[in-house]
Amino acid sequence: MTQAKPAPSGALQTVHVALGARAYDIVIGRGALAEAGSRIAQLAPGGKAAIVTDARVGALYGQRLADDLSRAGLRPTLVSVPPGEGSKSFPRLIEVCDAILAARIERGDLVVALGGGVIGDLAGFAAAITRRGLRFVQIPTTLLAQVDSSVGGKTGINSAHGKNLVGAFHQPSLVIADTALLDSLSEREFRAGYAEVVKYGLIDDPAFFAWCETNAEAIFGPGPARDHAVAVSCRAKAAVVARDEREDGDRALLNLGHTFAHALERATGYDGSRLVHGEAVAIGMALAFRFSAMQGLCPQEDAARVGVHLASLGLPTRLQDVPGGIGTAETLVEAMAQDKKVKRGELTFILARGIGRSFIARGVAAADVRDFLVGELAGA
Ligand code: NAD
């Protein structure tokens, strides 16, 4: 449930991910990056660190982090890939693994992922497989990565067959979420990450959803509401991951909106100029609630409230909102059948009985989904 009040401005908060031998802390707040050197040095005193980043984030923060690590007695090497979803690919993975090996990163050393979800997924997977497993630190620089992808140990790349289909569970040793880094994020990327914040309210925390409705504007600004939103989200994710690290059970709830979202991303060829991941999740969550309402599971008013809130912030909520179109209902259902949340040909969705009352629905009939999408495409 939602923690009572935002922490005062400037105070760092720590969320613990209780995973026994793989437990770690998430340090959250404005200015947390200033402590990165000393905190990372504690993990590998005097060791080497490969900082994997993308060209955009690297230009903004790469040298600052490298200098900080050097001051703390570590020996950093910067490894850069192009920005964007296209870097979650086999060719980039090979490049990053080779760069880590060329930097002579050994088992006692570290990989540091400095960037958004793309970098966390790619660098984390490279760390998981290079030298049969290197420790890594996540320094997420997008809102989406701070509230979602940097926590929980899912790493991986995309395949021609679909998103995130090649990967590994590999928990970070530390996450440092400096919310001041979000000041340089584009409004579009911030908004996309906000969809994942709202997701935690929609899953099982209606009070947090209501808090988001009231405080959205402040979350988009640099004050304590933003830090609070990140901390509540991380606490929610940490609790789910601690219960179900490998997604054998209710971790799947975190996929609310994602079966639709992944199909949309696939249909747009992972073209970030048309649709970025968080935007796809916004549409996916709105669809999941409308589908739930159509199935008689969820009040229409709740589905409408979800759509209204997301749209009020400029997020897309309808298939028609994707520029350039997304094909037919059949092609979308076909794309969902390729998604890894499919077990023995049955579609699994996260549906809702209301705001904050999401549940795992197995064996959803593809025909029902197709009919629903036909109606959505027709503007029903
Ligand atoms: P991203 O990593 O592509 O970053 C978005 C853009 O913002 C990039 O162009 C990047 O260069 C730029 N950027 C990043 N930080 C910046 C900053 N501080 N200032 C200015 N520009 C900055 O996208 P994302 O939305 O962070 O991540 C999306 C990816 O995360 C998807 O591949 C998705 O599948 C993955 N994901 C993974 C998990 C998981 O559990 N592993 C969960 C959710 C999403």
Description:
The protein is an alpha/beta fold and 380 residues long. The protein starts with 12 loop residues before the first strand and ends with a helix. It is globular, with a radius of gyration of 20 Å. β10 and β11 form a beta hairpin. Helix content is 46%, strand content 18%. α1 crosses α2, α5 runs parallel beside α6 and α6 runs antiparallel to α7. The protein has a 7-stranded mixed β-sheet with strand order 1-2-9-6-5-3-4, with helices on both faces. A 3-stranded antiparallel β-sheet has the order 10-11-12. The chain has 2 domains: 172 residues, Rossmann fold; 125 residues, Dehydroquinate synthase-like - alpha domain (Dehydroquinate synthase-like, alpha domain, Up-down Bundle). It is built from 13 helices and 12 strands. The site of nicotinamide-adenine-dinucleotide has 32 residues, from α2, α4, α5, β8 and α6.
